[in-house]
Specification:
This is 32263d00-4d6c-4276-a9e5-ac3e7dbb16f5. There is one protein chain. The chain contains 1 helix and 36 strands. The chain is mostly beta strands. It has a domain of about 120 residues: Sandwich (Immunoglobulin-like). About 40% of the residues are buried.
């Protein structure tokens, strides 16, 4: 209402107070039903906090640390080539300013799958690049493949520190993917490996995930040599769980856990051509001396979701697990016993899993946003003398309360702005009911938590004053039609010479009535006591989620 921003309507299939906390859902909705895709933050109850349009396709929004500060990071570019992309990586600070745009080195385009900032101030990125390859195993002596590249880049200087190519270390024949008819040529390179995650350990080595190899490769961070392979055709580990630790397929998002003694991953278990079992989250323990692997825990959605593409598994500090189900438009939070406690769909239920709305990954992070903009306000009519004022502030995480204030001049001194009403901020949009008898100019203050030193609420921001004087054609919007209404100028009365006097008397009477009503309203408010915040507020945080 106060802006044109549209919030998703979440379908909470399962909800628990255990999921309600100060962390925020972080995702990147896109799909056929999304007209303006972009990064998005929701509070733990599913209310919109921040979103930003203007990019092409956006993937992999998350919160990462760089040199002691938190940043929003994401990839944006074109994903026209099915399964991967060509674009750049963005870093936004707590004020939502774009402070860094990271590009891949050697003239290559950054891929959408991963952008990980390390503790050493470097970035790990994925890249897809067409190269010549031996495809003799399918009768093509010299063909073309999408080679998968990883790069480590110094964020401060942009210097390339390390580069590795899958085609130089893995034979194409190790893939589980059949070559589609027509693939293998220069214009239709074969996607044989499909890298989708990189993780670097304290030893300086890399763990990478290959979707079409059904495997994880651990490689030397200096030479690029393969140290071991988990899963796939060349698995090097003994599975102590009867095959359940190594039978993952088409997986995503492999990460070191538990001080590098375990690995978590998102096991898609199938793709569009090979539908498999239900998707699961998988946590396994590794013994690199005896070369054994064993399942610690599986995370299964109660509705048996099959995510044929994308997805992630995030482990929180309290051992809760977040799983984003990629193309299905769903995410689930599990407790430390592996029980699903919150299960959410954010796309049309009738088209669930059809890709209408999806998010490559979904996370839950701590975030504090301080936008450089002012709060947005807009006034809508409701068909009578009462109007509705809506206020929102895109990205402001710290606002706890809104104060509606009025004054007779737009640049009145601070002490002359009278507090008329207040409302707790509970949703993205907050509504106030206002009357034309209010002071001519209205503004809204965003208030934060109480200061422990001063005992007062922190002022976070103030909206631009709105003019309620209809005779000066302030813009008012009709809530029912969405059309703009301009007030009419006073009409000059024509008639006998006695009419001007009569007209003057009528206007004087109306003006006197207006002044009297307004003074009565002010007297009634003052009679309640010195604290204006004792009034019963009108319109406490009306949710305005629209599909």
């Amino acid at each position: 209402m106060s802006t044109d921003v549209v919030s998703p309507r979440l379908n909470m299939l399962r909800s628990s107070t255990l999921c309600r906390n100060d962390l925020y859902w972080v995702l990147s909705p896109r799909g056929r039903s999304i007209s303006n895709p972009g990064p998005m933050i929701l509070d733990s109850a599913g209310n919109l906090i921040w979103t930003k349009g203007g990019y092409d396709q956006v993937y992999n929004l998350q919160v990462q640390n760089f040199l002691g500060e938190k940043y929003l990071t994401f990839w944006a570019g074109t994903d026209a080539v099915q399964g991967h992309g060509a674009g750049s990586y963005y870093m936004l600070d707590k004020n939502y300013r774009e402070v860094n745009k990271v590009v891949a080195a050697n003239g290559l385009a950054g891929d959408l799958h991963d952008f990980t900032i390390t503790k050493n101030g470097t970035a790990l990125v994925t890249i897809y690049d067409v190269v010549v390859a031996d495809l003799s195993y399918v009768g093509i002596p010299q063909g073309y493949v999408w080679d998968c590249v990883i790069q480590e880049i110094d964020l401060a200087s942009g210097e390339l520190l390390f580069q590795w190519r899958a085609a130089e270390h893995h034979p194409v024949s190790d893939t589980y993917r059949d070559i589609p008819d027509g693939d293998g040529g220069v214009k239709s390179a074969f996607d044989f490996f499909h890298i989708n995650s990189i993780d670097k350990d304290a030893k300086g080595n890399f763990l990478i995930s290959s979707r079409y190899f059904h495997s994880l490769t651990y490689l030397n961070g200096t030479t690029g040599d393969i140290i071991w392979i988990l899963g796939g055709k060349k698995n090097m580990f003994k599975d102590l769980s009867g095959g359940l630790a190594t039978n993952f397929a088409y997986q995503h998002d492999a990460r070191w856990r538990h001080n590098r003694t375990a690995i978590s991953l998102f096991d898609n278990a199938g793709d569009d051509s090979h539908p498999g079992n239900a998707t699961r989250g998988l946590l396994v323990s590794l013994d690199e001396i005896n070369m054994t692997v064993e399942v610690i825990r599986e995370y299964m959605n109660p509705n048996g979701i099959r995510a044929i593409s994308q997805g992630n598994l995030q482990m929180l500090d309290d051992d809760h697990v977040i799983m984003g189900y990629g193309n299905t438009g769903a995410f689930t939070e599990y407790d430390n016993n592996g029980t699903a406690i919150c299960d959410v769909h954010f796309g049309p239920q009738s088209r669930f899993g059809a890709g209408e709305v999806q998010s490559y990954r979904t996370f839950k992070f701590d975030w504090h946003g301080w936008p450089m903009t002012d709060p947005d306000v807009r006034i809508l009519t409701n068909g009578d003398d009462w109007l509705s004022l809506y206020v929102s502030w895109n990205g402001a995480t710290e606002v706890r309360k809104w104060l509606l204030q009025g004054a007779d001049e737009p640049e009145a001194e601070e002490g002359k702005w009278e507090t008329l009403d207040y409302a707790d901020k509970t949703t993205f949009e907050t509504e106030f009911e206002i009357h034309r008898m209010y002071p001519r100019y209205l503004r809204v203050k965003g208030m934060g938590s109480y200061n422990n030193v001063t005992g007062e609420e922190e002022l976070l921001g103030v909206s631009f004053p709105l003019d309620l004087n209809l005779e000066k054609a302030s813009r008012i919007f009709n809530a029912n039609t969405g059309t703009q209404i301009w007030s009419l100028k006073p009409v000059k009365l024509e008639g006998p010479s006695s009419w001007p006097l009569l007209t003057l008397m009528v206007f004087a009477g109306v003006a006197g009535l207006v002044v009297g009503v307004r003074e009565a309203m002010i007297w009634r408010r003052r009679k309640r006591g010195p604290s204006l915040l004792r009034w019963r507020p009108r319109g406490l945080g009306v949710p305005l989620l629209s599909g």
